[in-house]
Amino acid sequence: MANFISYHPWNRPGTEFTEESDYKNRREILKTIGLTTLGLIASPAFIQACKNPDHKQAFTSIPDSQYCENCFDFKGMKELYPAKRNEKYKIDRPLTKEYDATHYNNFYEFIDRSDDNIYNAYKFVDPFENRDWKIEVSGLAEKTGTFFLEELMKTFPLEERIYRFRCVERWSMAVPWTGFPLATLIKFLQPKSSATHIRFVSYANPKEMPGVNNLTWYPWPYFEGLRMDEAMNEMAFMATGIYGKPLPKQNGAPIRLVVPWKFGYKNAKSIVRIEFVNKEPETFWHKLQPKEYPFLSNIDPKVPHPRWSQEIEHMIPDGEPRPTLKYNGYGEYVGGMY
Ligand code: MTE
Q1: List of domains in the chain
Q2: Which of 61, 23, 52 is nearest to 120 (CA)?
Q3: Residue nearest to atom 16 of ligand 1 (CA)
Q4: Less CB within 10 Å around the terminal CB: N or C of the chain?
């Protein structure tokens, strides 16, 4: 992931944010995964190419994505959106435009060789079949087995929360998620006292996901984890929607994790399995680069990534710089845990 650091619209070769080593690394990685437009990446044309051609649509809303053919759906789901906003969670910046938050994504399962912009997941999600979604729950809990998302969504009231969101690569956004607190789900599943951590596993199917098919050296499926106290914290959220609608596939439909005080990669998408365990679980990016992606990964401007500073972040889509906030500004809720 991090090797793509200079691949953002505002983060192009020649700017203060591009270090030679990052740039070389990215080239090497792109070569490895067989993306063919390296020349373009180094040229001024890339700067244009990197901007979404439909960028003007950033000022409009995306069409209702609720009833695509193979999207998660059930009778009455439409009526659950938009859910009532929980006004407790306020932010200090304007909301990111819906188009931008849903057309600039990090979802490695949907990286396709045909596209030189790895953030274009939205172009490749159609084959992703998520109509009837189930979550397998296993490990140290009273209630384990298969749970239909439809039933969970009928059991737990949905609410909307506006959260800041910060990727380790320094881009950030502010979006309204719809969903329910992770703590509500955990209480329902009744973990045993021996459970110290919770593990999340994402869906992975090479037939529907070009990244899973082609990026074979990644340890699919994507997996992440939290400590139990973190998972029970009121900020930890299971999102089923965004901008008052069901999640589009590229944002992790039909259900994903949102832990806004941690870097984006902790927020596993399209979750199919939850496990209660009694030791710190391995995580996807930690397994790949242990020195760069520690288990906790709390946002902190004073703790640089080994290859870049984390003091400044850049709002999508234009890269407006802002100082990074410790715990992404959620210290009053989560600071006591560390
Ligand atoms: N979950 C899965 N399954 N696969 C991924 O590649 N990327 C992570 C996270 N969850 C990722 C994932 C990263 S690095 C980020 S920054 C966020 O998703 C991006 O979420 P967004 O695309 O909704 O903004």
Answers
A1: 74-96+131-203+217-337 (3.90.420.10)
A2: 52
A3: 264
A4: C
Ligand 1: residue of 269, 287, 328 to mutate (most ligand atoms within 8 A of CB) is: 269
- Report which of 141, 223, 149, 134 is spatially closest to residue 187, judged by C-alpha positions: 141
Q: Looking up tokens 């593990």, which residue turns up? A: 199
58 CB under 6 A from ligand 1? no
Q: CB neighbours of 186 closer than 8 A, spacing ≥ 6?
A: 198, 228, 231, 232
CB 26 within 8 A of CB 4: yes
| Residue ID of nearest Cα to ligand 1 atom 23 | 251
3-state helix, strand, coil in the chain (%, to 5): 30, 20, 50
Of all protein residues, whose CA lies closest to atom 5 belonging to ligand 1?
107
Q: Assign residue 230 a region (left: φ > 0; alpha: ψ between -120 and 50; beta: otherwise).
A: alpha
- Ligand 1 atom 24, closest CA: 105
Q: Give the model confidence (pLDDT) of 267-321 as tens digits.
A: 999 999 999 999 999 999 999 999 999 999 999 999 999 999 999 999 998 899 9
Could you give the angle at the alpha carbon of 60 between the alpha carbons of 58 and 61, nearest 5°?
Answer: 105
Cα of 170 vs centre of ligand 1, distance in Å, is: 13
Give percent above pLDDT 70 in the chain: 80
For ligand 1, whether the C-beta of 106 sits within 6 Å is yes
Strands 237-242 and 197-202 turn out to be unpaired
Preceding amide of 254 cis, omega within 30? yes
Q: Is the Cβ atom of 267 under 6 angstroms away from ligand 1? A: yes
The pTM of the full predicted model, rounded to 2 decimals, is: 0.86
